[in-house]
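Try this one yourself first.
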């Protein structure tokens, strides 16, 4: 595991974007695993800027997103498909047909989960997976559980996650209670993982994920077993890591 510290959000975003652009420059046909949430927005903005300067070309890239809310259409302004199109895909030259997000409206959710696993399999797996981290320690929407859920599945979101997501919706009733998420297996089989985190509210869960016991009660803790994990985080998010394991920060 490599932990890279950044003084602030902008710097975190730039360092993480550097890793993704290097991946695409070195391997133009990369399969990128992509994440939503507020944390990666700056990463996408930086990549768009470099694309516009002509520094990075996404025309041969494929992408698979981690998750989607159950019940939201791609046109819904809070759906993850809408987020990806507006925050990233519409501003770069990735062909939209190369991008994949689970279908939140699929009538048969089990079939949609199997389809999504096949999409990932047919692409040959993920070369670089970008991850944020939820306050419960979730990655994608793999919430704390008794076991690590391996394949794409439909998940009932934890109350803490619903509360955190509610800032994006007008009323509590509108906040989705279920989501479809890529499983732990596809994430862990990614050749490289890049985890981004910022802000004081992530300090405790980031420490527990990276240095606590490996347990499905903290889903992100499984990342300790990955052999190519890079964490890029700002100093606020690294506060507890810096306090307890300063030597781990490179
Ligand atoms: C969301 C997403 C995750 C994301 C996490 C943290 O709900 N499903 O992929 O990493 O929660 O979000 P944020 O970056 O806004 O804190």
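Now uncover the answer:
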């Amino acid at each position: 595991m490599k932990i890279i510290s950044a003084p602030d959000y902008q710097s975190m975003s730039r360092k993480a974007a550097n890793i993704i652009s290097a991946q695409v420059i070195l391997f133009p046909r990369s399969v990128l695993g992509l994440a939503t949430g507020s944390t990666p927005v700056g990463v996408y903005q930086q990549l768009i800027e470099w694309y516009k300067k002509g520094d990075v070309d996404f025309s041969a890239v494929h992408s698979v997103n981690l998750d989607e809310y159950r019940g939201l259409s791609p046109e819904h302004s809070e759906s993850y498909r809408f987020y990806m199109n507006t925050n990233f895909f519409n501003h770069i030259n990735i062909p939209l047909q190369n991008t994949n997000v689970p279908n939140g409206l699929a009538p048969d959710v089990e079939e949609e989960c199997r389809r999504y696993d096949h999409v990932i399999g047919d692409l040959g797996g993920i070369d670089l997976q970008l991850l944020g981290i939820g306050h419960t320690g979730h990655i994608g929407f793999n919430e704390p559980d008794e076991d690590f859920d391996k394949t794409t599945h439909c998940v009932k979101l934890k109350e803490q996650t619903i509360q955190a997501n509610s800032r994006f919706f007008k009323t509590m009733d509108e906040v989705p209670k279920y989501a479809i998420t890529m499983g732990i297996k596809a994430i862990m089989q990614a050749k490289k993982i890049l985890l981004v985190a910022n802000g004081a509210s992530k300090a405790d869960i980031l420490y527990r994920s990276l240095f606590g016991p490996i347990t499905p009660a903290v889903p992100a803790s499984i990342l300790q077993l990955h052999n190519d994990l890079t964490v890029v985080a700002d100093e606020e998010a690294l506060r507890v890591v810096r306090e307890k394991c300063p030597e781990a920060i490179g």
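Discussion: The radius of gyration is 17 Å. The chain has one domain: 2-248.
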